[in-house]
Design brief:
Glycerol uptake facilitator protein; 11 helices; globular
């Protein structure tokens, strides 16, 4: 139960700070309005680092179903724990999104851009082409797992710096690969807040775009497993 609670809290922190930076940049009359993509990518990277520092020593701070499934697929995590981890992550993401709404409630009310309001909670492609959107998310999440496994390898001796380096990894992915789809690379990060968007009484909101919502759930799972096996393949050749 301690591990499940850690995944809940870690994912809540991730979304509170991650969706929070999007709200700060996108919503009207915020002090960070229009501060741009670099601010968003930096905020998400720092959000990951903070979440991992808070809960990593308890559960490993997967805070991402793609990480959980990928680690189980390569034998580094028990499949018995996977359902509980994923449930805790999605609920934590939902609660984090609700806290973002409460923080920025006045700014949601002041914002007319319905797509922008949804964008605080969930990802969307800049060019909607489902096949290529899936490929983008697979590549980004594969890079995430390759980076996580590489950073965590014993030969790097990263110790307490590991969490910060994972934050740098997510920052780098956002800056380099986030442009096409907003780099969900995490099913809970998209699904939990998208559910929150659907349920919250957000003024003049649009639909929650469930026609696209399955892409940032399915594609990161595929990409995460692929990335984990790619890293293991090269590791077996090197060792």
């Amino acid at each position: 139960m301690a591990m499940y609670l850690a995944e809940f809290l870690g994912t809540l922190i991730l979304i509170l700070l991650g969706d929070g930076v999007v709200a700060n940049v996108v919503l009207k009359k915020s002090k960070g309005e229009n501060s741009g993509w670099i601010v968003i990518a930096t905020g998400w990277g720092l959000a990951v680092a903070m979440a991992v520092y808070v809960t990593g020593w308890i559960s490993g701070a997967h805070i991402n179903p793609a990480v959980t499934v990928a680690l189980a697929a390569i034998g580094d995590f028990s499949w018995d724990l996977v359902p509980g981890f994923i449930l805790a992550q999605v609920i934590g993401a939902f609660c984090g999104a609700v806290l973002v709404y409460l923080t920025y409630k006045n700014h949601f009310d002041a914002t007319d851009d319905k797509n922008g309001k949804l964008g605080v909670f969930a990802t969307a492609p800049e060019i909607r082409n489902i096949k290529w959107n899936i490929i983008t998310e697979i590549i980004g999440t594969a890079m995430l797992l390759i980076g996580i496994l590489g950073i965590g390898h014993g030969n790097n001796n990263t110790g307490a710096l590991g969490a910060l380096l994972v934050g740098f990894l997510v920052w780098s992915i956002g800056l380099s690969l986030g442009g096409p789809t907003g780099y969900a690379i995490n099913p809970a990060r998209d699904l939990g807040p998208r559910i929150a968007h659907a349920l919250l009484p957000i003024k003049d909101k649009r639909d929650s775009d469930w026609g696209y919502g399955w892409v940032p759930v399915a594609a990161p799972i595929i990409g995460g497993v692929l990335g984990a096996f790619i890293y293991k393949f090269f590791l077996n050749m090197w060792m």
